[in-house]
Specification:
alpha/beta; TIM Barrel; 13 helices; 40% helix
């Protein structure tokens, strides 16, 4: 039996839905790994038809597992978008092989092109720009290419705490997008506060970077889980939102939900229609089912469960 069947229904009187937030969440994407997707018997029970599903490629994951997951996602009615992390791809021939396998076995047409979190590259590639420069994605007919963004910077790249290198990289990708046949967008790291996200998106537009932003949001999860992931992923000053919550004993054991940051961003987008955020991208750190139920609840989507911790 489906947990979510995604029919619109009137919100219960005691649980009004924020229409601005519901609109902001429309078309959101979600990220999985082969091992997390394998825990879900049928993704169609939890995700809206056509949802874009990113597939994180963690170092050590065999390409066979990635392709199998992409094929399953496609077969169940969703749009697979595998990661292509430059630093775990040995050479041009390996990249060409991956692209061919994704396309021939899973009809993949989209990819997230990024450097990856590995400190030492395994081969010829060190950056997403080098992957794009091969021309292999466009030759293969990819219709959409996403690149990484960091609303609070990335100290692995800009060790001085500035945004100089990451901004220069986005300027390069903006120029690439202007000649590319593929639709492009920036998919970002998650953050926990709207103000720095708004400032960053506005600063991109001021610098001539007009690629639409798919803003990364950490889905509902235990506070301890979120803090662990946030530190590991290098989340910046907005981490203080979680740290402040952790100091409140009454909230320590309650699951974190991203409603405040999402509502603030949604309100800003509604007041400024040209604001650069185009979609929300969820990192389901508390589980795919939990994240899907949360999104359904806030989009006024018919659900057979009100317990988002399921």
């Amino acid at each position: 039996m489906s947990i979510l069947n995604f029919r619109r229904k009137p919100a219960p009187a005691d649980a009004p839905v924020d229409a601005t937030l519901a609109h902001f969440l429309e078309g959101h994407s979600i990220e999985v790994m082969p091992r997390t997707a394998a825990k879900i018997e049928n993704l169609a029970d939890h995700l809206a038809p056509g949802t874009r599903v990113y597939i994180a490629h963690i170092e050590g994951t065999p390409i066979e597992d990635m392709v199998t997951t992409a094929a399953r996602i496609r077969a169940e009615g969703f749009e697979p978008m595998p990661h292509f992390p430059a630093r775990i791809i040995k050479d041009r021939a390996t990249l060409a092989d991956w692209i061919d396998r994704y396309q021939s076995e899973a009809d993949v047409k989209q990819g997230l092109i990024l450097a990856g979190g590995v400190a030492d590259p395994v081969g010829d590639f060190d950056s997403s720009m080098q992957l794009l420069d091969t021309g292999l994605f466009e030759t293969a007919g990819f219709t959409r290419l996403h690149v990484a963004g960091h609303p609070e910077g990335n100290r692995d790249i800009d060790t001085d705490g500035s945004m100089k290198i990451v901004t220069e990289a986005l300027l390069w990708k903006q120029k690439y997008a202007e000649t590319s046949s593929a639709d492009m967008a920036i998919a970002t790291q998650f953050a926990f506060e709207a103000a720095p996200i708004i400032d960053w998106v506005d600063s991109l537009q001021q610098q001539g970077i007009t690629l639409p932003v798919h803003i990364g949001i950490a889905g509902p999860a235990k506070l301890q889980t979120l803090i662990k992931f946030a530190i590991a992923c290098g989340v910046g000053p907005s981490l203080k939102v979680l740290q402040k919550r952790a100091m409140d004993v009454t909230k320590l054991l309650l699951p974190y939900e991203p409603t405040e940051v999402l509502s603030d961003l949604a309100a800003h987008k509604a007041a400024h229609p040209d604001f650069g955020i185009e979609q929300v991208h969820f990192f389901p750190l508390g589980g795919i089912k939990t994240n899907a139920a949360y999104a359904a609840l806030h989009m006024n989507t018919d659900s057979q469960t009100a317990d988002i911790q399921g």
